[in-house]
Amino acid sequence: ASPAVVLLHGRAGSSETWTRIARDLAADHRVYAPDFRGHGLSDWPGRYSFEMFRDDLHAFLEACNLAGATVVGHSMGGVAAYLLAQREPGLIGRLVIEDAPPLHPLDPPRAPSVRPEGALDFDWPVVPDTDAQLNDPDPTVRGRFPEITAPTLVIGGGPTSHIDQGHLAQLVREIPDAELVTIDAGHLIHTDRPQEFLAAIRSFGLA
Questions:
Q1: How far is CA 116 from each of CA 36, 37, 46, 66, 87, rounded to the nearest angstrom?
Q2: What contacts 111, CB < 8 A, 6 or more positions away?
Q3: pTM for the full model?
Q4: Fewer CB within 10 A of the end CB, N or C, for the chain?
């Protein structure tokens, strides 16, 4: 009977990045932390997009009967979550966006990525495929933030994050029921400052 929370990892990560947070939340919530395609234990099909991750999240919520759950998305996972919240108002109960890019065209554009040597624990094409979208995003996405009806908490990582914090503040102004909290941790907020992250999401109200 406990309320459900779905934790979504960022690019090149996996569900394991949420271990510390999940352990705390599991005291009073049902916690789900899937791996997106191309990451962790999920399939690696070789081609990727933010819309694919959105659709996979939608399918996951439907398959697990998680309509109304709180969804917490870091970076790429946050993009998937807000894209779904735009398209399916009412499916997500509460939304937490952790330092996710609001899909403004990058200026200057991100240079072509070079694959690191050795084995990776994620599928490398995720990087160039999503970099292309970050450089030249679908402009309709930014116009649909007012369609998000879920109460929303945006957590920014402050000046040391590579995500434009001004764009995050603009995102909050465009979502009807949204608030912004800044935790000066850089981009990896929930891993580098887990206690402050937990305090913020618990104060927001997870369910």
A1: 21, 20, 17, 37, 36
A2: none
A3: 0.97
A4: N
